[in-house]
Design goal:
Elements (H helix, E strand, L loop, with lengths): L6 H31 L5 H19 L8
Length: 69
């Protein structure tokens, strides 16, 4: 069975995922501190907080560094 992703694409996705796991919790604590303290976070904001570093890291890892051709 042939793999769909190239080795570079696989590396980019893995790097973006690791970045998300590191940066996401830090940004969540910074942005949602009051809500987390009261155990009532705004979940869509928490999800965006994790998605943004993933997408930024992924776009920077792709060929061209995220620049338009």
């Amino acid at each position: 069975m042939k793999h769909i992703l190239t080795p570079h694409a696989h590396w980019c996705l893995r790097r973006a995922f690791v970045t998300m796991l590191i940066v996401g919790p830090i940004l969540t604590i910074i942005n949602q501190w009051e809500c987390l303290w009261l155990f009532d976070p705004v979940w869509w904001k928490v999800m965006l907080t994790f998605a943004v570093p993933f997408l930024v890291s992924l776009s920077g890892s792709l060929p061209g560094g995220g620049k338009k051709p």
